[in-house]
Design a protein that fits this description.
The complex is a heterodimer of chains A (about 180) and B (about 250). In chain A, helix 4 crosses helix 5. Chain A has about 180 residues and is an all-alpha fold. Chain A is flat, with a radius of gyration of 25 Å. Helices cover about 25% and strands about 15% of the residues of chain B. Chain B contains eight helices and eight strands; from the N terminus they run H-E-H-H-E-E-H-H-E-E-H-H-E-H-E-E. The longest helix of chain B has 13 residues. The radius of gyration of chain B is 19 Å and the shape is globular. Chain B starts with a helix and ends in a 5-residue tail after the last strand. The relative contact order of chain B is 0.22. Chains A and B meet through helix 6 of A and helix 6 of B.
Chain lengths: ~180, ~250
């Protein structure tokens, strides 16, 4: 007759199994959420395509995001900016997405775009400085010109910022008060 | 290994720790200070300081990055009143910096004593170590009633419960001045371009702010005034604020 420690563990087996399954489920759930249900590529109120605007029609980024060069925020174009062009583009005027735009315009409502790149409030990032340093928009925002729906390509977390500041040897670029204040 | 030796050599070079890019310094002329508290109000508005309310004020949980300390001298009827505006001294050898376990407060390249809110874990050790009592702790998350939240400064974080805060020498204004300097292809900020809220609001111009590394700056000339002194000098904290002594007629 052998003495086994497993017998003593017998009553704990069932709860242990349940905990194991739960922990496993948690990891699987987190992975599935991150992969398929995170808001990296949210469905926008209007199915706006950067590919059509940038690649097909060759509109530069700062034609619409006009504040990028001179203020901290790049700015989302106003509805009037959209209508300015689309009023005079008869070929697409009757397409369903443009009709949605026209509805917002007639109701005098802003389009409730969903923010894809959102930084916490304690981060004071400025577009101006980065544009003036000669960075292309694509270096942080990825190949936007090929995207039909905007997808977040970078983590926008601090290590990602600091890596770039270190690599490019930004003067005092790693001082905390550069971004946090 | 070689980089380690290189760094060690760099760090052990005399003056390495005092070598600042800028050295922001303030002078406060106590002869001119009338104790009007305009600086206190300006700071409150600029830096999103919460209004804690009467009850918490009585528990000395008020948050004021700059305060006016009041002193009485002499016996009645020959009594005189003096004021000292007290704010973070941005000591070059700051006791608070040695205490922080998470490096939320440190000395940066501009000779400023920083406070990083999102890194702070609220041990309050720095406040204990500070001989000037100018660090303030957020015991609660304060809110602003509508529509007062509209007047919050977007360039300054709104602090939450459990975070230490203190005067930053209006870092947001320093950053804007540096930003403008870069736009004009200037490497340096000109004297008088950075004006903190308290200095801007002072009606008697008792306060001066500038880069003391620049010998031509107004502030470096003012520092050499014979009335100049630093508070609690024997503690060897080497503050960045020079007070000019009040002269009694």
């Amino acid at each position: 007759m052998s003495i086994s420690v497993l017998d003593a563990l017998q009553p704990a087996k069932k709860p242990a199994l349940i905990v194991l399954v739960l922990v496993f489920g948690l990891f699987v759930g987190a992975w599935v959420h991150g992969k398929y249900f995170s808001d990296r590529s949210p469905i926008q109120p209007i199915d706006f395509s950067h590919r059509i605007h940038v690649t097909d029609n060759e509109i530069p980024c700062q034609h619409c995001h006009i504040y990028a060069e001179r203020t901290p925020v790049a700015g989302v174009p106003s509805v009037s900016k959209c209508m300015g062009c689309h009023n005079s583009v008869p070929s697409v005027r009757e397409s369903p997405e443009i009709l949605k735009l026209a509805t917002y315009w007639e109701n005098r409502e802003p389009i409730p775009w969903i923010k894809v790149y959102d930084l916490p409030d304690y981060v004071h990032f400025t577009h101006k400085r980065h544009i003036k340093a000669g960075l292309a928009c694509q270096e942080c925002h990825g190949p936007v010109e090929t995207m039909d729906r905007i997808t977040r390509v970078a983590t926008m977390k601090m290590p990602w910022c600091v890596d770039c500041h270190t690599e490019r040897e930004v003067e005092h670029g790693r001082d905390c008060w550069t971004c946090h204040k | 290994m070689s980089t380690f030796v290189e760094k060690l050599r760099q760090y052990s070079k005399p003056g390495y720790y005092d070598e600042f890019d800028y050295h922001w310094t303030m002078t406060i002329d106590l002869d001119r200070c009338t104790g009007c508290e305009a600086c206190v109000v300006a700071c409150q508005a600029e830096n999103n300081l919460p209004i804690v309310g009467e009850e918490r004020f009585a528990q000395s949980r008020e948050i004021k990055w700059i305060r006016i300390e009041r002193y009485w001298e002499g016996e009645y009827p020959n009594i005189k009143m003096g004021f000292i505006p007290m704010l973070c001294q941005h000591c070059d050898d700051a006791p608070c910096e040695t205490a922080c376990p998470v490096y939320a407060t440190y000395h940066n390249q501009d000779g400023l004593n920083t406070q990083i809110y999102n890194r702070c874990i609220g041990t309050r050790t720095c406040a204990v170590y500070c001989p000037y009592e100018v660090r303030y702790f957020n015991w609660f998350t304060y809110t602003w009633d509508e529509p007062l939240e509209q007047q919050l400064n977007p360039d300054v974080s709104v602090r939450e419960k459990g975070v230490m805060e203190k005067c930053t020498f209006c870092i947001q204004r320093i950053r804007i001045a540096k930003d403008n300097a870069k736009d004009d292809d200037r490497r340096r900020v000109r004297d008088g371009e950075v004006v903190p809220a308290c200095v801007q609001s002072c009606p008697t111009e008792a306060m001066l702010f500038g880069n003391s590394k620049d010998p031509e700056a107004k502030v470096s000339k003012m520092m050499k005034n014979t009335r100049g002194y630093t508070v609690l000098k024997d503690l060897n904290t080497t503050p960045s604020i020079v007070y000019l002594k009040k002269v009694h007629a």
